Amino acid sequence: MKHYPMIINGHAIDSNDRLAVVNPATGDTFATCARASDHHVDTAVHAAKMAFDVWSKRPDAERKALIHQLGALIEQHKDELIELVVRETGKPIGGLGGVGATMEVMGASAWSHVTADIDLPDEIIQDDATALVTVTRKPLGVVASVTPWNWPLLIAIWHLIAAIRAGNTVVIKPSELTPLATARFIELANGILPPGVLNIVMGEGNIGQRLISAPAVSKVVFTGSTATGKRIMASASNSLKRLVLELGGNDAAIVLPGTDLDRVAGDIFAAAFHNNGQTCACLKRLYVHESQYEALCQRLVAIAEGIKVGNGLDADVELGPIQNEAQRSIVENLVAAAVREGGQILCGGKRVEGAGYFYSPTLVAGLRNGCELVDQEQFGPVLPIIRYTLIDEAIELANDSPNGLGGSVWGENTAEAEQVGRQLECGTVWINGHGGVQPDAPFGGVKESGFGVEFGRYGLEECTSIQTVKIHRQ
Question: CA torsion, points 433, 101, 193, 6, in degrees to nearest 10?
């Protein structure tokens, strides 16, 4: 059984305490990793702090070139990384709509290359006979990254690459459920980067708490639940750390009357069920006009019944297991609540028999806002379909949520769909699509889905502080 150490200051560091990593398709432990102590966290933060002085002063062109090397390194080791992602998350190699482990790994490479080429030049505010005033952006210092289990390598890259591109150094704490692809990437990256620029410690929530509370940490970037994000925000307040929080989403989609259902049904299904619905920006609430409600339900059921569910390493599998047993129990409880509240299970609604944490793709009709499955983020292969009568009603229902990560509108009249979409209370709205993030466009939430953004120039700016320089001229 393979074992993965921590990487601190460029060195592989083991511990006497180990974490078992389970393959959710089988329920069996397939690898272990070193479990960090408080001392390991403190050592990693110190190493990052010591590395910051040299790394932040390194010529920008050199940092850019090294990040391009990291992107190439991911592609060079893609087969190994893809297999690790499949084994620790359960997602298929290809996946529904091509959204699987291969996309995760190759997306991580692409994100690295695009981010490497983003520049933050000085801005000239004034340049005349009296003064030269410029705004420059400076790296913050040590960035603490805490990542979730659903897209472990890709989200790690989202956090890490922007931070080091701006001249910061990083200590990352991946989810204890899926630490391996991230640990292997950090090991590989330390063959290219100077010691201390990228460090990894592994463990449960107490290790993450130790990391984000470290006085030398200047910024925390976290992707995960709203409840955990609030605790991180409280901890960060003691030293006023910078924060980027990408928290829970309960994304709504509105299908406008007159929409070509044959055109959109497959895309809507994939938007809701890729990665088994275990994506913050999955479509999680579907509002359909009463004139097309039954017809769209029928089309979605037909798609669901043809989906191949199984071990992600097997050919042609589209959906794998839920990543862990605790999350499967959450999904089961929400489906049970939906039945109690009058929902009709159109398909699925049960475990897949056998080993692993499998659950059938499930569609639920007859619910409304106020039902648990509608109001809470299910984070699993279940979609509630809600009927509406008036478009204004659909907008009101979509906005009736404490979350505001993403949303979408589907229809034949793009201008009308855009007009509706601009009324949704979310950080990103998609028209005739859902969840299509990209490395050059900002992404983040509003309301209880967090604050701050990632990706592109705006995301890179979040990794810096502003310094205004005014030169008085005689």
Answer: 120
Global pTM? 0.97
Task: List the end-to-end C-alpha distance of the chain, in Å, as a whole number.
Answer: 72
Q: Containing domain of residue 145, as a range?
A: 2-247+449-472
Same domain, 432 and 461: no
Eight-class DSSP state of 275: G
Integer-rounded Cα Rg, in Å, for the chain is 23
CA distances from 417 to 134, 141, 289 (A): 41, 43, 14
Are residues 297 and 417 located together in one domain of the fold? yes
Contact (CB, 8 A) for 108 and 157: yes
Q: How big is the CA angle at 412 (ends 406 and 415), to the nearest 5 degrees?
A: 70
**Residue 377 a catalytic site member:** no
- Express each pLDDT in 344-357 by its tens digit: 999 999 999 999 99
For the chain, give the longest Cα–Cα distance. 81
From the list 288, 312, 264, 260, the residue with the least C-alpha distance to 383 is 288
DSSP letter assigned to residue 454: B
Structure-token match 């648990």, residue found? 372
Catalytic one among 88, 246, 448, 462? 246
In which order are the strands placed within the sheet that holds 131-139?
123-127, 131-139, 464-472
